[in-house]
Amino acid sequence: MKIEIDHKDFELMITHEQVKKRLRLIGIQLNVVYENRVPIFIGVLNGCFMFLADLMKQIHIASEVCFVKLASYEGENRRDEIIQLIGLNHDLKGREVIIVEDIVDTGNTLRRMLDLVKALEPASVAICTLLLKPDALAYQFEELAYVGFEIENQFVVGYGLDYNGLGRNLKDIYRAV
Ligand SMILES: O=P(O)(O)OC[C@H]1O[C@H](OP(=O)(O)OP(=O)(O)O)[C@H](O)[C@@H]1O
Ligand code: HPA
């Protein structure tokens, strides 16, 4: 099936049924690994909102959830880009943290997120991402423990992911053609 978003063509890549099936398996894994550890799931906005909402329906152990946003601004020296974590209202010291992303592409966002989270001294940090583009990844992350789908280096949209701000509401995931 083909769709058009903001004058760009996309074709169906991963159906919502496939996503749900994969989420059930990831949920089973997380329920086992984190039993009695009361993990905190930290979703990185905006893209993760649908994935994290559906993932949490598969989590049956005691756990907490929060959402953060990464914001950047330029320091006095124009080349200094300062990155801030906005919205975190939990003390992460000694906690078992699971960072939830819709997609890890170059890995730049995750690199920054990990630096900020690790500075807060959690007991452990794992990453759960719905999509991973291995060929675009500029770093190796040993924390990348839960991956929904590895995909080719193509732009994707839907299920939280946007193209020019549009398409986040689509249930299925589409790739640019
Ligand atoms: O691995 P990277 O190359 O850094 O790309 C991945 C990031 O890009 C997207 O966020 P974006 O900054 O577009 O914000 P959004 O979630 O609000 O769409 C996505 O949600 C990831 O957080
Ligand atoms: O392929 C993508 N689609 C939408 N947003 C993104 N952010 C990083 N990669 C992507």
From TrEMBL:
Its cofactor is Mg(2+). Residues 27-163 form the Phosphoribosyltransferase domain. Keywords: Cytoplasm, Glycosyltransferase, Magnesium, Metal-binding, Nucleotide-binding, Purine salvage, Transferase. Pfam families: Pribosyltran (PF00156). GO terms for molecular function: glycosyltransferase activity. Pathway: Purine metabolism; IMP biosynthesis via salvage pathway; IMP from hypoxanthine: step 1/1. It is found in: Cytoplasm. NCBIfam families: HGPRTase (TIGR01203). Belongs to the purine/pyrimidine phosphoribosyltransferase family. This is Hypoxanthine phosphoribosyltransferase. The lineage of its organism: Bacteria, Pseudomonadati, Bacteroidota, Sphingobacteriia, Sphingobacteriales.
